[in-house]
Amino acid sequence: MSKLLVTDTTLRDGSHAVSHSFSPEFVGEIVSKLVAANVPIIEVSHGAGLSGSTIQQGFSTHDEWKLIESAVANKKDSKIASLFVPGIGTRPEIITAANIGIDVLRIAVHCTEADVTQQYFEQAKKSGLETVGFLMMSHTQPASVLAEQAKLMESYGADCVYIVDSAGALVPEGVRERVAKLKESLSINVGFHAHNNLGLAIGNTIAALEAGANQVDGTLRGLGAGAGNAPTEVLVAVLNKMKIETGINLTILMDTAEEIIAPVFQYPLVIDRDNLAAGYAGVYNSFLLHVREAAAKFNINPVSIIEELGRRHAVAGQEDWILDVAIELAQKQLVR
Ligand SMILES: CC[C@H](O)CC(=O)C(=O)O
Ligand SMILES: [Mn+2]
């Protein structure tokens, strides 16, 4: 197997968990630590990708270009990636990010919508970037559908396609089937991005590796949307035990997670009732903060909103449904 590539996305997925409040100084400090630890790819952007700072996705406290500039200034031999969600970001932002000096663009869509990504892969390639396709909410589709979508991305110029467990809803068998099918169908790298709603982020990542994944994601201390991600330092410790070579320095990761990341948590990252309900019902983790706000506003149980969103198969971009559902449930409660 070619060397496993770990992407640390603390400074992107972790941004959801701190209400998009990272400062350029903080980004510079964490990137320096990850570089010193030899992490090959470091993702930096608003949690919802380039141009994600909006009323719907949550405003950032700092200019995203300044965050990316700070990451690039400290990157040395590591690569800086940014996430891009078509419709939230547009082509000019890809050009700006490439001009600042990012190396990798990760293009994320709902896992049945790869056909909207062609112009963005083409722009990224024209701008000299490596590209990753991110098939979000991969638990909602069987392996065969995901493989078709991944093949489209490969034909548009993707260098790697990820199975993304956005809701933390997959169990190891489901991960293995999906990753194995992509491996069989593609001639590019296959990746896996986990969330921990069912307590399986590390286990599922190992299942992905066993099924042939070449790239995997983690975040320091697991900082990320909803129940968080696979903690990078735990992942590296497990990989060391399994004798899977990453070239990453575990001590630096452990110290950084403990001393710099743990103090920025705004709430404890535990699998609480809402996180578990989201994983169980297959609801997108980035919805959770909005769900909690709506539940508090209308005095209803967040789990009832999560379950209804699950029944409606809500996907990324349908954040407006959260309020609709909350209002409907509150009205029903009044009628009773
Ligand atoms: C809004 C993009 C999203 O957070 C991407 C991601 O990390 C996921 O779907 O898990
Ligand atoms: Mn994620």
TrEMBL record:
Its EC number is 4.1.3.39. InterPro entries: 2-IPM_HCS-like, 4OH_2_O-val_aldolase, Aldolase_TIM, DmpG_comm, DRE_TIM_HOA, PYR_CT. The keyword Protein transport does not apply. The keyword NADP does not apply. Mn(2+) binds at residues 13, 193, 195. It is an enzyme of class 4 (lyase). It catalyses: (S)-4-hydroxy-2-oxopentanoate = acetaldehyde + pyruvate; (S)-4-hydroxy-2-oxohexanoate = propanal + pyruvate. Gene3D superfamilies: 1.10.8.60, Aldolase class I. Substrate binds at residues 12-13, 166, 193, 284. The active site is at residue 16. GO terms for molecular function: 2-isopropylmalate synthase activity; 4-hydroxy-2-oxovalerate aldolase activity; manganese ion binding. It holds the Pfam family DmpG_comm. Residues 4-254 form the Pyruvate carboxyltransferase domain. One of its GO terms (biological process) is L-leucine biosynthetic process. The record marks 12 as: Transition state stabilizer. Keywords: Aromatic hydrocarbons catabolism, Lyase, Manganese, Metal-binding. Belongs to the 4-hydroxy-2-oxovalerate aldolase family. NCBIfam families: 4OH_2_O_val_ald (TIGR03217), PRK08195.1 (NF006049). This is 4-hydroxy-2-oxovalerate aldolase.
